[in-house]
Amino acid sequence: MGYYSEHVVPRLIDWACGMKTGEPIRERACRGLTGEVVELGFGSGLNIRFYPPEVDSVAAVEPSDVAWRMAGDRVAGSRAPVRLAARDGQRLPFADASFDSALSTWTLCTIPDAQAALREIRRVLRPGGVLRFVEHGLAPEADRGVRRWQHRLDPIQQRVLAGCHLDRPIVPMITNAGFTVTDLEVFYEPGAPRILAADSLGSARVAA
């Protein structure tokens, strides 16, 4: 990783994703988490304050040392113990059926092989375990103009934000990894450009 990707991008993400307008969305994404949780793309710990009381512990998956250091005070103040447990979401060092819940917030846009990461999350969830997610990605099919601009600007977005994609089809990616989506909200984040803010928020369980 170069200096920009390693030191600047984590701070940009902490600033952009830490805005108060996003807090109600984070809170909704964390609802329903229980027991032992694996959090994909932990970042600087912005979700910690929204973990429900039913969370017993959190295994953080985060490749950035800078982001983990930025999370220090939040981790120290967390009611549920949080540990840095893995660096690469595409290859998780956990046994099968190790976790009750999984959480991913604005992460699948950036993981190089997001399908591999989702398959790994599916593998480490216990039977009946739930994946809670909120992700930005490809706009709804009816908004063809937004989609065209997402496709056009995606290469620039990847360069500016170290691999972040604008146009990944979030829900098909989740279902293709062997999940059944059990509830889903699709919306644009208020006040943000539509190409950046087509969100999918919901729950998924391992498909039978």
From TrEMBL:
Methyltransferase found in the keyword field: yes
Q: Which residues form the Methyltransferase type domain?
A: 39-132
SUPFAM superfamilies given for it? S-adenosyl-L-methionine-dependent methyltransferases
| Pfam families xref list | Methyltransf_11 (PF08241)
- Which keywords does the record carry? Methyltransferase, Transferase
Q: One MF term in GO for this entry?
A: methyltransferase activity
Q: Name one GO biological process term.
A: methylation
Ranges in coiled-coil conformation: none
**Could you tell me which InterPro entries the record lists for this protein?**
Methyltransf_11, SAM-dependent_MTases_sf, Thiol_S-MT
Keyword GTP-binding attached: no
Against PANTHER family, the record matches this protein to: METHYLTRANSFERASE LIKE 7A, METHYLTRANSFERASE LIKE 7B
| Name this protein carries in UniProt | Class I SAM-dependent methyltransferase
Give the organism's phylogenetic lineage: Bacteria, Bacillati, Actinomycetota, Actinomycetes, Kitasatosporales
